[in-house]
Write a sequence for this structure.
């Protein structure tokens, strides 16, 4: 008795890749529920508390200076090579390219633009909110600190909150936000949280950020992810408008192709239908244009293909006083 082999996990993955692209009707769009609103409010209150703690130079600023004087890059120097590569997971360019490639493939497979549009909205919110906070508070980093124990605010810096940490939260967290199943969403949420915290601690290890910068950057990225359901109606309208424009463009292109296909003969009007017009007078002092040359009807051959023709008779022009040889003129004396 022959038994069929049970498909493995890899077989199921390839089976999903071989399916025809289909629009995901079973994936629910996150709504701004009461639970999410409570989390957003708590995160916003925590964000403001960290900013206030730094502004009044509280114990959080003293902790920043203690960590800076500890110099982690000297205490654990063997980790420096690994941290230099790991911190790239928070840079905007490399992470945006990787996540855009994955979400673009998902958009093509599922016939939807929602993943790419959600990523674009989240990155736009990240640039506006975190960028405004950075340049608005102007905090200097540990390498450029001017006074021991100060909060280094309003001095023209751009490190508070940490852009690396916030970018890691948003870029990797959007994968969890767009996950297809609750189980995948939980795993990806935990993975993005650990990755973003690791990126933030890497900047503290190198010495480019204070510890409070990392905490505020993590909360700033979390606020963007929690606020994304408010922008879902706008994303749906943008997707519908883009698809509508694509449908109109395809219809216009097909209509143009049916109206005038390539190779269709063009009907010309006969010359008899045109009204006879008098020729324009040629102004004085300007030579009249030459009349067009007309070719004789019939096939034409090249000079090389023509057969030579032998002239008949003499080539001399006739002369009145000359006579053919062998005859005498009657008028000769």
């Amino acid at each position: 008795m022959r038994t069929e082999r049970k498909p493995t996990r890899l077989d199921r993955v390839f089976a999903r890749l071989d399916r025809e692209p289909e629009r995901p009707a079973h994936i629910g769009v996150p709504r701004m529920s009461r639970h999410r609103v409570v989390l957003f409010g708590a995160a916003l209150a925590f964000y403001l508390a960290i900013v206030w703690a730094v502004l009044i130079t509280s114990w959080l600023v003293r902790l920043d200076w203690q960590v800076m004087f500890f110099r982690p890059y000297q205490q654990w120097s063997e980790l420096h090579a690994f941290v230099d590569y790991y911190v790239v997971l928070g840079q905007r360019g490399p992470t945006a390219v990787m996540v855009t490639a994955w979400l673009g493939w998902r958009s093509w497979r599922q016939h939807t633009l929602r993943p790419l549009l959600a990523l674009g909205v989240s990155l736009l919110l990240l640039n506006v909110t975190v960028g405004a906070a950075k340049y608005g508070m102007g905090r200097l980093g540990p390498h450029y600190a001017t006074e021991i124990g100060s909060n280094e605010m309003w001095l023209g810096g751009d490190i508070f909150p940490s852009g690396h940490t916030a970018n890691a939260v948003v870029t990797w967290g959007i994968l969890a936000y767009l996950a297809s199943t609750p189980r995948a969403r939980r795993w990806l949420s935990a993975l993005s949280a650990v990755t973003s915290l690791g990126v933030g601690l890497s900047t503290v290890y190198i010495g480019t950020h204070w510890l409070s910068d990392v905490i505020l950057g993590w909360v700033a990225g979390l606020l963007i992810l929690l606020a994304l359901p408010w922008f879902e109606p706008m994303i749906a309208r943008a997707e519908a408008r883009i698809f509508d424009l694509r449908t109109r463009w395809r219809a216009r292109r097909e209509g143009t192709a049916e109206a005038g296909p390539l190779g269709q003969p063009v009907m010309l009007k006969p010359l008899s239908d045109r009204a006879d017009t008098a020729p324009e007078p040629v102004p004085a002092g300007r030579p009249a244009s030459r009349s067009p040359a007309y070719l004789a009807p019939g096939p034409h051959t090249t000079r090389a293909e023509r057969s030579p023709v032998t002239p008949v008779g003499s080539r001399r022009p006739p002369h009145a006083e000359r006579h053919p040889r062998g005859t005498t003129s009657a008028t000769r004396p």
